[in-house]
Input
Amino acid sequence: MFAVRFMLRKRIAKPWIMVLPSLCVMLAVVIFPLLYSLRLSFIQWDALVPGQKFVGFKNFVQVLLDKRFLASLIHTGVLLAGIITIEFLLGFLLALCLLEEFKLKKLVTATFILPVTIIPTVTGFIWKLMLDARYGPINHMLSIMFRRDVQYTWLAHTNTAYLSLIITDVWQWTPFMILVLLAGLVALPKDTLEAADIDGASEWQKIRFVTLPMLKPVIVVALLIRSLDLLKLFDIVFAMTQGGPGTSTETLSYYIYRNGFEYFRMGYTAAMSYVVLVIVSIIITFLLQRLGEVT
Amino acid sequence: MKGRIRYVILVLALIFFLFPIFWIIMTSFKIPEEFLSHPPRWIPRQPTFAHYVSVSGLGGYETLKNTMVIATFATLISIVLGTLCAYGLARFNVGGKNLPLWFLSQRMFPPITVAFPAFLLFRSLGWIDTYQAIVTMHLAAHLPYVIWMMRSFFRDIPVEIEESAQIDGCSIFQVFWKITLPLSAPGIIATAIFCFTFSWCELLFGLVLSRTEVVPLSVQLPRYFGQQMTFWGEIGALSTLSMLPIFTLVLLTQKFLVRGLTLGAIK
Output
């Protein structure tokens, strides 16, 4: 390290110059808009009411009393919980299946990457077509199974609209879980599992008491990353349900989007964004701690 | 997991993950009578390329070009700036432990919280419906990612290699250019491909910052879905076209895929 230290002492200014351009860009494209939006959040500025006036914390109080905002928080929570649970269980099961060598393993793993690389809007439309009441293959398969003509409109009923969104996200992002958990499983030390074998542990006991505890750091990172992605859930809602039926699948991001770009309530949107920022910051802090530890 | 049950599970999973892709590709080759038939037809009997032609009249190829332009510029700029910044953070510890984490945190906030004020600011600049507006906002997401990933790749390179180059008389810049960059080339390429993919898939900023001139593919596709009529054939064609390049690119980086997806936490 002596050379680096020597260099630092001699030309202390240089390393800062490397960081500066990026820092300026981030300040300009993220921090400046956020400060601007902070100012907006204390102002009443509406497309319907002329003029802008300072109203203090009124916008924030309104957000916290807004039933539709709280509902969108719950919708996001329900989707997040449902999606993460299924993705983890399915991903873990498939990662275990892929752990041992077999002939076509490389090809199969590559195939699982496919959904992750598709534009989420496209994914939304693929599943919209799959679930189409008259022309979709899902209803067709159900028709064959139940021996009667099924023409169910999946996205027009609240419960099945949720199910549809969950299936769509699970389809796209379970491969992420598979790949991450598989990487974790491959890196586990073999001798612990062998010791468990010698002690006569069953397959289930080995997973429950050896694999899962050792895999915990990987699982935590995977779940946190997925949680952050799901808190911003927007694309597939935009493509598939537009928040409907009614407002029953409106997520946080989608409700903010509507306030800003459909109802043009500037101050209110800004205040709502800040409430969401506070909520998300808590999860981000957890994830950053983890990432700070491992990297 | 052993035995036959494992293969049963894998085959079922493959069907689940592949069938929707098969379906959208098949739809793009079906004539309207076939994708609007009840019950649906699985394989087109008279395969047609008509939708790949007609999608051009609906601006499909235009949006493909726009997406390509946005993704290319956003990737190039963020790689150049981000790599430099990452080197400063990794080797000279600029900003200590917290600055890298601060950069990373900028990527994790829901983009909608920035999209709205950014939209208002760009509107007053007259930048709505321009490439530079969308590229700029993509930078906000890519730059932290490049910085964080490249910092981790640079740290994989033993510092002794750089020190010996310095002793041989290289300046800092020469060390960076002749030693560090070539050694971390695979990492740079993988990171660039990830950025390109993020741009390719991005919806929100494209949606709020474009009108007619620079519409990306992800924004155009929903416009083919109408109350009276849905252009399923064109949706199928454009979807199919959007899948091929990214899947090919990502397969090239398979080795770094997990590392890239988990922000370097799992290698």
